[in-house]
Amino acid sequence: MELVISVLDANDNAPQFNQSVYKVQLLENTERGVLVIRLNATDRDEGTNRNISYSVQHVFPQDGKDVFWIDKNSGEIRLRGELDFEDVGLYRLQAGATDQGNPPLSGHCKVLVEVLDVNDNAPEVWVTSLSVPVPEDAAVGTVVALLSVSDRDSGANGRVRCAVWPAAPFGLVSTFAGSYSLVLREALDRERVSEYEVET
Ligand SMILES: [Ca+2]
Ligand SMILES: [Ca+2]
Ligand SMILES: [Ca+2]
Ligand SMILES: [Ca+2]
Questions:
Q1: Where in the numbering of this chain does the Cadherin domain appear (predicted)?
Q2: CA 91 to ligand 3 center in whole angstroms
Q3: Which of 133, 141, 154, 194 is the most buried (most CB within 10 A)?
Q4: Which of 160, 158, 199 lies closest to 182, judged by CA?
Q5: For the CA of 156, the nearest ligand
Q6: In this predicted model, what pLDDT tens digit does every residue of 60-77 receive, in sequence order?
């Protein structure tokens, strides 16, 4: 006689991610729909006890929850919203994989999405103080205007060089980071030129 004894699977294994932390870098101008990363978890049980569905449980900062979208079957995380390095430079996602056992078991992982700066902001210049009109006998070196310059980008993308046209009779002097003085470089002669347009 032959006895066949089969062992029924119990859901005693939780899904396990192949990495506990996934790290991704994305340029801030990455288009919507782009694949950010594909998560992968496995489960040593059988049947429904190993059927996994993926989810993103938390996103920090919280308003980033609409920025990412996960396909619960494939584990693919795609970009659903827009990135802006000047707003958020790093997203931390907590993702889970849950099997269909009774009761279900879950595994967890972290996804770190680093946003990289792109030169997407033009420098801005504004006048913080202006002393016009300028008397014809004003001394060389007189400060005519104070200018502030800034650029919201980082590193080389945010570095601004400032110049003035025409180069005479006014010149720019850098006073401290992001600030310039527009100064008189030559004596004025109203009878020769009565009005100047200065561009920076
Ligand atoms: Ca399982
Ligand atoms: Ca930006
Ligand atoms: Ca930028
Ligand atoms: Ca810039």
A1: 18-125, 126-198
A2: 16
A3: 154
A4: 199
A5: 4
A6: 999 898 999 999 999 999
